[in-house]
Design brief:
By secondary structure, the protein is mainly alpha-helical. The protein is built from 6 helices and 4 strands, in the order E-E-E-E-H-H-H-H-H-H. The strands form 2 sheets. A two-stranded antiparallel sheet has the order 1-4. A two-stranded antiparallel sheet has the order 2-3.
Length: 150
């Protein structure tokens, strides 16, 4: 059980990723698209952009493991400047990443017409299903990286 306290649980954006963040020339940040706001663990608002960056934004240049480490480090460093992440919560980041993956898979089933799936949609569904059934973590967060923030 993950404890729900005022420091771990409350109102979150729910869909923080590149498409929902605007940064001005003066480095002012504006968040958009609050339709997915919900009460949830604050860590989920870190898992969503991390998952999205690795699943949708990796361009293929370089090493995805290094890219993931860089994105995770930047995200956690920035967040921890404003908020403390309790150890018992931060250790659950891989669980929250898996939750996001399951959420994405369920959205595909909700919005895609099962009678008219393209070959690409079938490939994506099978890819997600195999990862989920075999407990394969598409996004692996190294424990030493998490430990450096504790």
């Amino acid at each position: 059980m993950i404890p729900k306290t005022q420091h771990t649980y409350g109102l979150i954006h729910g869909d923080v990723w590149l498409e929902n963040v605007v940064v001005t020339e003066r480095n002012e940040i504006t968040m958009l698209d609050f339709q997915d706001c919900e009460k949830h663990y604050y860590l989920y608002d870190l898992a969503v952009p991390l998952y999205s960056a690795l699943e949708y934004s990796f361009s293929g240049a370089g090493n995805i493991k290094d890219y993931g480490r860089s994105i995770t480090t930047s995200l956690l460093e920035g967040y921890s400047q404003e908020n403390h992440i309790p150890k018992e919560i931060l250790e659950k980041l891989p669980l929250f990443l898996k939750l996001k993956e399951i959420f994405e898979y369920s959205l595909m089933h909700m919005y895609w017409d099962k009678e008219k799936l393209s070959e690409e949609q079938i490939r994506i569904l099978n890819h997600y299903r195999i990862r989920l059934e075999n407990k394969y973590h598409a996004i692996h967060i190294e424990s030493d990286l998490l430990l450096s923030f504790l």
